Automatic annotation (TrEMBL):
Its main location: membrane. One of its GO terms (cellular component) is plasma membrane. This is Solute carrier family 12 member 6. Belongs to the SLC12A transporter family. K/Cl co-transporter subfamily. Residues 99-269, 377-655 form the Amino acid permease/ SLC12A domain. Residues 673-786, 801-1028 form the SLC12A transporter C-terminal domain. It is a multi-pass membrane protein. One of its GO terms (molecular function) is potassium:chloride symporter activity. It comes from the Eukaryota. It comes from Drosophila madeirensis (Fruit fly).
Length: 1028
């Protein structure tokens, strides 16, 4: 009977009954005895408690192995070492203060603070000046919030805004922003150099002018700046080329100078609270005069008369007004603040004077004599552009992320604290300057009324040289930092190979320095120096920084609104609306400050963007909106086809295999709810059912089934598509669906199939279809999810609380980490907490393993409780042997009764025609027909025979031991969890009915006693990353 049965059922292996030690043998079992022993020898090092996952451990590492390698991640490039040399000491990791806060302070405080802030306050007044500073500080604060979100979304290697933008918005935006940031940094170096020359020539050594008295001629002053600026640029370029170590050491000196200078200013303000008698100005009527010694500041003095009465013909304004001496530093107690409240904007060529009377400010006779005039036309927006470079430098911390001990903590705290500190200094300085210094002196840009002295320096304590030397050294240091950083940024862009014509600048010198990039930087910097005027350079470089900051805000807003799975910033105090406000502010300030400079920066960004895009883009125009939409869709699909998505962009594109009942209705509606919750309304979902039969005969049923499937998807708010496939064999139909569904880059990468609950029933092959589907999914390198207990899963309109427990046994790409995070994005699971359990092997250090796992989760920006479970290497229990014996007895009985299957198939044929909807979801529990009495009799005989003869196979006993032990621990820890997510063990490699049936039994034992289980198997690629 058994031999006949084997011939009748092609799916069953050949059975030969033989008496050998009282045991019934399978010929393949005999042949595979040596195979089993060989496998046992190869896998002797596998923990007995994890034997069920032995096939997976060959390609998927155990968690302890994976975690130990990830937790010790270093994102700095290791230097070349001598193999014979002693191992170097571990590099010191910087904290928030040294690594982020102080570098940001140094980069934010700059030359504008010392040589232009008093002029901005005097021209704009206390109110408008406060608004100017506040607007600039708001731009950088909002940008810092967006930057903190991006910088804490994984490990950010050095690269600042370029790295963050290029990895968030793509190479086109990244290349454009990178070049803008490079240009801005280079022009900042030019501004620092011109500012340093201005400090020396105007306030320290005016005798060094080589173009005559520059106080009489502005062009002479700017020519001096150009010549000395070029010399200083060459000198600083040589320093950067020869000794970068000197630049880094000098940075500390420059920082100390900045801090001491600011402290000296504050002390001086309160030291001169009642003013001082050291500084007086000469005023004619209401106009401010220059080059007049205080002793000669009287109307009757011949010095004054010779100036205003040449050829015995006196100036009318001189005749009609008196000359007076005015104290320059009046002090906070004087009430001068009220004179400096309102703005005093002037046009170029107007006189600096008290009030707004035209007779005082207009140059009617076109004779300036020695009265101080405005050298540029001033407006509120222009002053924003001039002051804005004073608040740049917020990227200094993110550029050093590779040297930080905890970048995700230090960058947000250090950057935001630095901005708050500098903003406090700037805003308080506006008020203090307005309350201390006379209005005319504040508006005297170059201090000509007080003998060419720096206003801020004369406020400071103990004397002006503290500020002069400090501001010069700090400005020089800032220029060196810019000349050091800009070439490296250009080299980083060139090495990314997104802008081909920059390829020559990717090379380094023998010392590892970007020499070629440095030469180009010096050339561009020289172009900026040739402008010769800080007031022209400041608005220009402001454009480039504003564009850069605008793109940072855009990147954060786009990532937040798209809700990409990889967008998990550890910094939580951000919102897309704040990023959009920051972007709007950047654009508004650009346009208001200088629309033509804004056009230059914007045109440069567009040209670079289109150039990068042009390399691979294809342009095509259709007629009409639909034609354009189809062209855009075609273009996007072709772009997606270029290669697999980056790990950061991976998201589950779901294929749901849904079973239909006899009425062509989806049997498990909640599988759609689960897909919706998993997608949170984002991404692609395709729902497919397979009907058994001939398409030519049941085409109408297929149409009706598709309509029903669409209705269920609509009711459950599933965003996606549905389809029905008619096939002669269910397994082949499912295989075809999995292999061919989707289009180009929009092919599903994740399959959801239901658990075959009735797999134990005789006459049902649902477990064959299930395992065949699992193998097909694995062969297609797709991820697989098997929800068990789907009827107990929550509805999409419900909110639940509790725990989502992840049992992480083997690492299969991080899908187990990503799925609960995606579920928590849906309001149904949002209030649940994550708990991650992993099993320690005998040789593992569970304490270190827990620490490493916490570090890994920290880098992943996932908040979860961690527990490492230590499973004792206990002996295999009698219950395990008994359970294994029962499993094998069942297999032997089913094979012994195989003869009846041919007869039973006739009985079932009527039901099979009636039941056309079959797939890998849970089969109907009432499908198995009642067996005949003859079958029952034979079952009893076979049962009594096998109970006395069958011994459990040791290979099966070990796997059963794993399933039982793991199940005991999981039930103990997670019985009350809202959802248990665990690794799905791989199916048996041998295509044998007995092994496959045993596999189903192992899974059943593994999940016993758990109400809601999600078994997950990765597709063989990483889907989650610690990188930004």
């Amino acid at each position: 009977m058994q031999n006949n049965s084997a011939k009748d059922d092609s799916d069953e292996m050949e059975i030969i009954s033989s008496e050998h030690n009282g045991t019934v043998h399978d010929t393949k079992n005999e042949d595979s005895g040596d195979i089993h022993r060989a496998e046992e020898n190869q896998k002797s090092n596998i923990d007995p408690n994890l034997y069920l996952y032995d096939d997976d451990l060959a390609t998927r590492p155990h968690i302890s192995t994976f975690i130990s390698s990830i937790a010790n991640y270093e994102n700095t490039i290791p230097a070349a070492t001598d193999p014979d040399a002693k191992p170097p000491q571990p590099s010191a990791r910087m904290g928030t203060l040294i690594g982020v806060f102080l570098p940001c302070i140094q980069n934010i405080f700059g030359v504008i603070l010392f040589i232009r802030l008093t002029w901005v306050v005097g021209t704009a007044g206390a109110v408008c000046g406060f608004l100017i500073v506040l607007t600039c500080c708001c731009v950088t604060m909002l940008t810092a919030i967006s930057m903190s979100a991006i910088a804490t979304n994984g490990v950010v290697p050095a690269g600042g805004s370029y790295f963050m933008i290029s990895r968030s918005l793509g190479p086109e935006f990244g290349g454009a922003v990178g070049m803008l940031f490079y240009t801005g940094t280079t022009l900042a170096a030019a501004m620092y150099i011109v500012g340093a020359v201005e400090i020396v020539l105007t306030y320290m050594a005016p005798w060094a002018s080589i173009f005559g008295d520059f106080t009489k001629d502005a062009d002479a002053m700017y020519n001096n700046f150009r010549v000395y600026g070029t010399v200083l640029l060459i000198f600083m370029g040589l320093i950067v080329f020869v000794g970068v170590k000197f630049v880094n050491k000098f940075a500390t000196v420059a920082l100390a100078c900045v801090i001491l200078s600011i402290i000296a200013v504050y002390v001086g303000i309160f030291d001169n609270i009642h003013g001082n008698e050291k500084l007086y100005m000469c005023v004619l009527g209401k106009r401010l005069l220059k080059d007049i010694p205080i002793d000669n500041c009287t109307k009757d003095d011949s010095f004054m008369r010779d100036i205003y009465c040449p050829n015995n013909k006196c100036d009318d304004y001189y005749l009609n007004n008196n000359v007076s001496k005015v104290k320059g530093i009046k002090g906070l107690a004087s009430g001068v603040f009220y004179d400096n409240v309102w703005p005093s904007f002037l046009e170029k060529g107007q006189f600096i004077s008290y009030g707004r009377d035209s007779i005082d400010i207009e140059n009617i006779d076109n004779e300036s004599y020695n009265q101080i005039m405005a050298d540029i036309t001033t407006t509120f927006t222009l002053l924003i552009g001039i002051f804005f470079p004073s608040v740049t430098g917020i990227m200094a911390g993110s550029n050093r992320s590779g040297d930080l001990a905890d970048a995700q903590k230090s960058i947000p705290i250090g950057t935001i604290c630095a901005i708050l500190t500098t903003s406090t200094v700037y805003l308080s300085s506006v008020l203090f300057f307005a309350g201390t210094v006379d209005n005319l002196l504040l508006r005297d840009k170059f201090g000509q009324s007080i003998g060419g002295k720096l206003v801020v320096a004369n406020i400071a304590w103990p004397n002006q040289w503290v500020i002069l030397i400090g501001s010069f050294l700090s400005t020089l240091g800032a220029g060196l930092q810019s000349l050091t950083g800009a070439p490296r940024l250009l080299q980083a862009i060139a090495r990314d190979e997104i802008i081909p014509f920059l390829a020559p600048f990717a090379k380094s010198s023998n010392r590892g320095e970007p020499t070629r990039a440095l030469l180009l930087t010096i050339v561009i910097c020289q172009c900026g120096i040739l402008l010769g005027n800080v007031d022209l350079l400041a608005p220009l470089l402001s454009m480039f920084f504003l564009m850069c900051y605008g793109f940072v805000n855009l990147a954060c807003a786009v990532q937040t609104l798209l809700r990409t799975p990889n967008w998990r910033p550890r910094f939580k105090f951000y919102h897309w609306s704040l990023s959009l406000i920051g972007l709007t502010l950047c654009i508004s300030v650009m346009i208001m400050t200088s629309w033509y400079f804004a056009l230059i920066a914007l045109s440069m960004a567009i040209v670079i963007y289109k150039y990068i895009e042009y390399r691979g883009a294809e342009k095509e125009w259709g007629d009409g909106i639909r034609g354009m939409a189809l062209t855009a869709a075609r273009f996007s699909l072709l772009r997606l086809e270029e290669g697999p998505p980056h790990t950061k962009n991976w998201r589950p594109q779901i294929l749901v295999l849904s079973k239909l009942n006899d009425n062509l209705l989806p049997k498990y509606r909640k599988i759609f709810s689960f897909a919706t919750q998993l997608k949170a309304g984002k991404g692609l979902t395709i729902c497919v059912s397979v009907l058994k039969g001939d398409h030519t005969k049941i085409a109408n049923k297929a149409v009706d089934a598709k309509s029903t499937l669409r209705k269920y998807m609509t009711d459950e708010k599933v965003k996606g598509f549905c389809d029905i496939l008619v096939a002669q064999q269910i397994g082949e139909g499912l295989s075809s669906v999995i292999q061919t569904i989707g289009l180009g880059g929009m092919k599903p990468n994740t399959v959801i199939i239901g658990w075959p609950y009735s797999w134990r029933q005789e006459g049902r092959n649902s477990w064959r279809t299930f395992i065949q589907t699992v193998r097909t999914v694995a062969a297609c390198h797709m991820a697989l999810m098997v929800p068990k207990g789907i009827n107990f899963y929550p509805e999409s309109n419900h909110k639940i609380g509790g725990n989502i427990d992840i049992w992480w046994i083997v690492h299969d790409g991080g899908l187990l980490m990503l799925l609960p995070f995606l579920l928590k994005q849906h309001r149904t699971w949002r209030n649940c907490k994550l708990r991650i359990f992993t099993v320690a092997q005998i040789e593992d250090n569970s304490i270190q393993m827990k620490k490493d796992l916490k570090t890994f989760l920290y880098h992943l920006r996932i908040e979860a409780d961690v527990e490492v479970v230590e499973m004792n290497n206990s002996d295999i229990s009698a219950y395990t042997y008994e359970r294994t014996l029962m499993m094998e007895q069942r297999n032997q009985m089913l094979r012994a009764l195989g003869l009846n299957k041919k007869e039973n198939s006739k009985v079932e044929s009527h039901n099979d025609e009636k039941r056309n909807s079959v797939d890998s979801d849970a089969p109907e529990e009432t499908d198995a027909p009642e067996t005949t009495s003859s079958k029952d009799e034979s079952t009893e005989k076979a049962d009594s025979k096998f109970k006395s003869n069958v011994k459990p196979d040791e290979f099966n006993v070990r796997r059963m031991h794993t399933a039982i032990k793991l199940n005991e621990v999981i039930v103990e820890k997670s019985q009350d969890a809202q959802l248990v997510i665990m690794n799905l063990p791989g199916p048996p490699r041998e295509v044998r009915a007995e092994r496959e049936s045993n596999y189903m039994e192992f899974l059943e034992v593994l999940t016993e006693g758990l109400e809601k289980v999600l078994m997950v198997r990765g597709g063989g690629r990483e889907v989650i990353t610690i990188y930004s």
